[in-house]
Input
Amino acid sequence: MEDLKTEPVNAVTPVDTEKALADMPGAFVNSLRRGNKQIRSDRALAIAEDAQMIFKREIEDISTGIKRMKRDRENMLDMSPDNTLSLKLASDFDAKEFVKRDLELGIKIRNEEIKLEIATSRYTYLFGPLN
Output
């Protein structure tokens, strides 16, 4: 049997491959050529940006909720149901319900303020100060 040396018919040298890739435009080839370090950096950036954006949105939502609850609590003090000239009748006022609702809102506000404080502190630790 003859010793057959198999040489590729169209042998492409590494220099030819690099030149061919360099001549190909577009994001696809560039993406294929990225090294492990660049891929890891891109993934890290995407993950960090998503987490930061969602964390910031959560802090904003908590803050907005606190403002609304405080506004609701203050609105409970409005004893003019229709306009500034009318007053709620004493017989229509349910003191027990008023106290219950006021305390519920106070507790919810305090819990949300604690949550906001923890979220803000954690955000600062993870991403730096809020802008």
Residues 36-75 form the longest helix (40 residues). Helices lie at 14-23, 27-33, 36-75, 95-127. The chain has a mean pLDDT of 85.
